[in-house]
Amino acid sequence: MPASISQLRGWNPTVLAGVAEDIARVNSMFDVRVHHSQRAIDDALVHWEGDAAAAAQARALADHLSGSELATAVDAYSDAFGIAARELDAVRTSALTVVDSAVARGFEVLDDGSVVAPTSATGDGVVDLLLQSDFEQKAREIEDQLTPLLVAAADTDESCAARLRKAVETVLGLQRDPGAAPQPDSPQVRAIVDGHSALPDDPAALADFWGELTQADKDGLAAWDPTIGNRDGLPAVDKSRYNALLLATLTSDARDLLGAVEARHPDWMEDRNLPLESRSYSGEDADQLREYSRWLDDRDAAEEMVVGYQTVQTQLAREGAPTFLLNIDDKGRGALALNNPDVAANVATYVPGTSTVLASIGRDMTRAENLLDTANMVSRGPNSVITWLGYTAPPDLHDATSERFADAGAVRLDRFQDGLRAAHEGMPAHNTVIGHSYGNTVIGHAMRDGAALDVDDVVFVGSHGAGVQRVDELTFYGLDPSQNAPHVYATAGPGDWTADIAPDVHGSNPAAPYFGATTFSTGDTGPSSHDNYFDRGNQALDAMGAIIVGRGTAGMGSGGSDGRDIVDWGGSE
Fold this sequence. Notes:
Layout: H1 5-10, H2 13-45, H3 51-104, E1 108-109, E2 115-116, H4 125-173, H5 187-193, H6 203-211, H7 215-224, H8 236-264, H9 266-269, H10 283-316, E3 323-328, E4 334-338, E5 346-351, H11 361-378, E6 383-389, H12 404-423, E7 430-436, H13 438-445, E8 457-461, E9 488-491, E10 518-519, H14 539-548
Parallel strand pairs: 5-6, 5-7, 7-8, 8-9, 9-10
Antiparallel strand pairs: 1-2, 3-4, 4-6
Helix pairs in contact: 2-3, 3-4, 3-8, 5-7, 6-12, 8-10, 11-14, 12-13
């Protein structure tokens, strides 16, 4: 049923916006206190060891996760009010503009949207007949313009109400008994848990299915599959909630594995009886040396996993924009978002390159923060930037010449982007993917040979190559390849050493003129320019901020689209 004119005039979206701001402000204070409490507990436990210490750490982590879970749920509640304010204001303004314009021209607009034409009374029968016919025609035209707006207003009102109900249900769902096992409500979920059915695999289908579930259903599925937060198509709030619990399990398992590796050779842990100390080289010594090498590799790998998960936990507790854990697994892959991408107008996914691991993701989160701050200076959005380490990056430059890492990562990046689209609320966001170093190769492989990414713009930064020779070999959803150039951006500093590392092994460099992308300047000519694109003050960062919010090269200054400060890559068409 369409909304009425009186309903629209009675709406006050400004009040909703104020509620959203008030909730966000109070929730931010709560979140800060949760993080401060966790840091204080960590400091208190740093010199405490033993079983009691482990139990205290486990309890502290559980309390921290519960606090973070509540803060995340309330943040979604605030977002629901903010979205309602923006969407209701937009549709209300559009409809009332038509109404007020019609009234100003002498037409009467009834409460149901019907339009009554004014009466022509010039005294000339023929003139009045002609004018009245024209008035009636204009009244029908106004009514035809207004009716779909009133229908859209009613639909928007209902969708906003549903979103608010879900947000309230999520918060109330946290009042459950922490020790009680979640019991699914719906027969469909019970069938999945019992093994008689399966969750939808397609991200869009999963998003639709998930949106109909109660909190008990969701928790029941999470108990059945603790990795459920990694499924593409789930809302960021739920992904982060369940992945935070998974992170605690993965951290504990990694510590257990490290302990088991160290227990294999406690003497080697104390630098005693090391095989390298032996001066003889019998067959037994050679076996010991091989075992020692394997043990060192196993210990290094286990330590890296522990440090990686601890680093992710640290990033979740960082101050500033709310951080959402969109992916985390036992293969060392993960994805963290600054701000909720589901309610953002502009969403950027940053894909790092060679040698990136969870233990080093703090550097990449700093880059994401710089991207977010720069985008916010161009447009308040709201904006979200994701650090996506959802693939296994090449460990070194030698491996970076291989396509296998890009091929595996491309499939995962494609599904991740589909999941972002499926989970997004309200109007579609402007989505951008930004690659650095080998991350560009992953993006390119996700857009070639018939594959396509559901994004609006792509940015190649300090690239090894995107796996193609020209920009029109990439594929966007719904875009003719001949129109790719305005949506593909690239930059490379003159001092970027990647120009000398296996040139063209992954196709033409996107910053080369003959590739056909829209290029922009870095303003950095030094030998360290490969690592400086995302630094504050770099022209490239300013350009990427504009691209993220859909401004393209606007306001980028010199260097945009003209090839200046771009490496002379040679080659020809």
